[in-house]
Amino acid sequence: MNSGQLHVVFGTGPAGMAVIEELLSHGENVRAVNRSGKAELPGDVEAVSGNATNVDDTRKICQDASVVYNCTNAPYHKW
Predict the structure, then answer these.
(1) What is the pLDDT of residue 43?
(2) Which of 30, 41, 65, 70 sits a CA distance of 20 to 30 A from 14?
(3) Residue 1 falls within a domain, yes or no?
(4) What is the value of pTM for the model shown?
(5) What residues contact residue 51 under an 8 Å CB cut-off, 6+ apart?
(6) CB atoms near residue 67 (< 10 Å)
(7) Measured between alpha carbons, how far is 8 from 31 in angstroms, rounded to an integer?
(8) Number of domains in the chain
(9) Under a CB-based contact definition with an 8 Å cutoff, are residues 65 and 4 in contact?
């Protein structure tokens, strides 16, 4: 069942991939974002290059999104 909504997932590591898989299992439209724009993604997931710390990138990538998921890795090394 596709709601017609766009779900944007920042991060394609284990957490991001789990969210992506769950969204796909419900037939949702998914845009996956990471710095390279490359990842082994299932289905019709749109891969986009972007930096979540860059406001302009984030605004552009999230345009038309109904939901945004932050699955990026926290900068633990800076804490």
Answers:
(1) 82
(2) 65
(3) no
(4) 0.90
(5) 35, 57, 58
(6) 13
(7) 5
(8) 1
(9) no
User: 32 in the Ramachandran plot: left (φ > 0), alpha (ψ -120 to 50) or beta?
Assistant: beta
10-residue stretch averages of pLDDT, the chain, 79 residues long: 88 96 96 94 94 94 97 84
Using DSSP, state whether 56 is helix, strand or coil. Answer: helix
Q: Which residue has the tokens 């766009």?
A: 6
- Rounded to an integer, what distance in angstroms lies between the CA atom of residue 62 and that of residue 6? 9
Instruction: Dig out the tokens for 10 from the structure.
Output: 């920042």
Quick one: tokens of 60? 């552009």
Tell me if 79 is assigned to some domain. no
Here the CATH number for the domain that contains residue 63 is 3.40.50.720
Q: Which residues form the domain of 44?
A: 6-74
Amino acid letter for position 58: T
Contacts of 32 (CB under 8 A, 6+ apart): 9, 12, 16, 20, 39, 41, 45, 46, 47, 48
